[in-house]
Amino acid sequence: MRAIARALDRDDFEQVRAYLADECEYLLDGETLRGPTAVVASYAEASDWARRNLDAIRYESVVGEPAGDGVPVRFIDHLEHGGRTHRHECEQVFTVGPDGRVVRVVHRELPGQPEAVAEFFRTCGLRRM
């Protein structure tokens, strides 16, 4: 799991795609994206927006201990804009199939994080994607 997390930290979407099973699904904000193309596009669009709209962004991840058939990964985004900084955290749980590739990703917002990042964007005069 560390390899896909590190690839996401580097925006290495070609490598991310290699870790995803053909039937991979990504549950994000009440929507289910299916297939590596859709999953990778979602990650790439979010990062592209951040790089175009913020002064700086750095990604970091912490891989947790497996729980059942999932492995939690905490993603930490270090945001900078207009002299302000913000640390945004979320968690995604990755399920790996029998061939070692990811078959499911479930995005989980952490308490208070969506509101805090929305406030950061608001104070910076930015509209979220």
Report helical residue fraction.
25-40%
* Estimated structural class: alpha+beta
User: In sequence order, what are the helices and strands, one letter per element?
Assistant: HHEEHEEEEH
Calculate Rg over CA atoms.
Answer: 15 Å
> Beta-strand percentage?
35-45%
So, CATH architecture?
Answer: Roll
Strand order of the largest sheet: 2-1-6-5-4-3
The CATH top-level class label = Alpha Beta
Which stretches of 5+ consecutive residues score pLDDT under 50?
none
Q: Span between N and C termini?
A: 27 Å
Number of separate strands: 6
Overall pLDDT score:
96
Tally of alpha and pi helices: 4
Largest sheet: 6 strands, mixed
**What name does the CATH topology carry?**
Nuclear Transport Factor 2, Chain: A
Morphology call: globular
Count of domains: 1
Overview in brief:
The chain has 129 residues and is an alpha+beta fold. The chain is 34% helix and 42% strand.
Layout of strands and helices, then pairs:
Elements: H1 2-9, H2 13-19, E1 20-28, E2 31-34, H3 36-53, E3 56-63, E4 70-81, E5 84-96, E6 102-109, H4 113-123
Parallel strand pairs: 1-6
Antiparallel strand pairs: 1-2, 3-4, 4-5, 5-6
Helix pairs in contact: 1-2, 2-3
Protein model, in words:
It is built from four helices and six strands, in the order ααββαββββα. The chain is an alpha+beta fold and 129 residues long. The two termini are 27 Å apart. α1 packs antiparallel against α2 and α2 packs antiparallel against α3 (36-53). Strands 2-1-6-5-4-3 form a six-stranded mixed beta sheet.
Annotation keywords:
alpha+beta, 129 residues, 6 strands, 6-stranded mixed β-sheet, 4 helices, 42% strand, globular, Nuclear Transport Factor 2, Chain: A
